[in-house]
Design a protein that fits this description.
By secondary structure, the protein is α/β, with parallel strands linked by helices. 44% of the residues lie in helices and 17% in strands. A seven-stranded parallel beta sheet has the order 3-2-1-4-5-6-7, with helices on both faces. The protein is elongated, with a radius of gyration of 22 Å.
Length: 357
Amino acid sequence: MRIAMINYSRGWGGAEQVLMLLSLALQAQGHEIVIFLRQGAATVEPLRKAGFTVIAINRDGAKKVSSIFKLIREVRRVGVDLIHVHRNHDLLAGKAASLATGVPLLLTQHCLLGSSSSWMINLADKIVVVSHFIGSDLTARFPVVSGKVEVIHNGVDLTPFAHPQPGYWDRVPAVAGYRPLLGVIGYFYKNQEELIELLPRIREKLPMAKLIIIGRDDAKQKLLEQLAHECGVADAVHFPGKIPHSEIGDAMAGLDFNVSAFRREGCALNVIESLAVGTPFVGYRAGSYPELVQDNITGILAQSKTEFVTRLVNLMGCPDIIADMRIESRKDAFSRFSLGTMVGHYDLLYRQIGKQI
């Protein structure tokens, strides 16, 4: 099949990473992939360097309307069997191209919907959600699309995580010698504040605990540093910046736990990756975490702040249980969240859509 992928986002995040992984794997299986992106977006060069046919379209200002006609022309020119959009914001453009060419339209919804409308979401012929958490919210708000929704969890190329080296943080003077190491990975809007606020309670029982906030957001980091100072735990918080993806597996393997206080996660790639290197997860029973993490087997899922702290502290006193969690985490990640599993589901869905529409 020849598939048009559309993603007009400006930046690069989890959805864009999945787009690249999925496209690479589909192309390796013999599908032809053409990717439509926003001109000047952070996605353009990485996807071109990956060897894809990329068509960048100017959507700024007055060009937003004319860009739809350009998309239609380009889709007709290359000829496709299916249009796959990776953001609900791109549904209107995708539907215009779908109607103009007579090919089906698929949406993958990677996060909770913001403001939208029933008629807009219903433009898609089929909707993939990356977790039951997102799917339940979507169908509760827009019952009309219930029959169109299918869950396909994100998958990850786990090859780079097959042989992690856990001594990564021993080489970092600001971190070496501290335990437990609690790592939080991702954009700084994911409630890192709450983890800092919980640190004084954690350190009452685990005085050498260190919170490592991985990522880069200069403006937000200053606010987090100020909060850590106000909470009296400035010495217990470390900001290593953005870690290259070639090193992130070792960095996660060197943590005692991957932690999060976020409650609206769609399907976190970093959770899957951390499980793949044997690092258990500690967070809340919220968002998609109950779908990714098996409580008491591959991590801990708490209901409250008090339970979060209590169970984390208690777990640190049970090294045998942690060792078992590390083994089970790796097994579970490789069995349920491989790239091949995700791609297989999409490949089957593409073929089903082609027959039904």
